[in-house]
């Protein structure tokens, strides 16, 4: 048997002995995942916030000096869309209408900034 497969099975068995995880551990893992996923997803789109800055925006609502407002709104929109998806995943089917709602959450506020910026030119 492949050693990597054995290692994965052993790790899964160990994880199984730890279940259910305490609620505070689940909350911490969810928060870390939210920050990491939001940072990496928005970075792919050109967002300039670092992971630490993304965490500050999400957890404290702090704006980072010298960073575009668009980047802050993108991070907040991503978080809102992610929260919406998690709530839906419990018991709702994902339809075309739901996908439009998710997209609207992800870009909320960004259109207003772009419009204001274009007007200032």
What's the shape?
Answer: globular
Report the radius of gyration as a whole number of Å. Answer: 19 Å
Average of the residue pLDDT scores: 87
**Structural class label:** mainly alpha
Largest sheet: none
In the CATH hierarchy, the third-tier topology is known as Fic-like fold
**Proportion of strand residues:** under 5%
| Oligomer classification | single chain
Account of the protein in words:
The chain has 121 residues and is an all-alpha fold. It has a single domain (19-120), classed as Fic-like fold. The chain contains six helices and no strands. The protein has helices at 3-17, 23-44, 51-60, 69-89, 96-107, 110-120. Helix 4 packs antiparallel against helix 5. The longest helix has 22 residues, at 23-44. It is globular and about 55 Å long. It starts with a helix and ends with a helix. The mean pLDDT is 87.
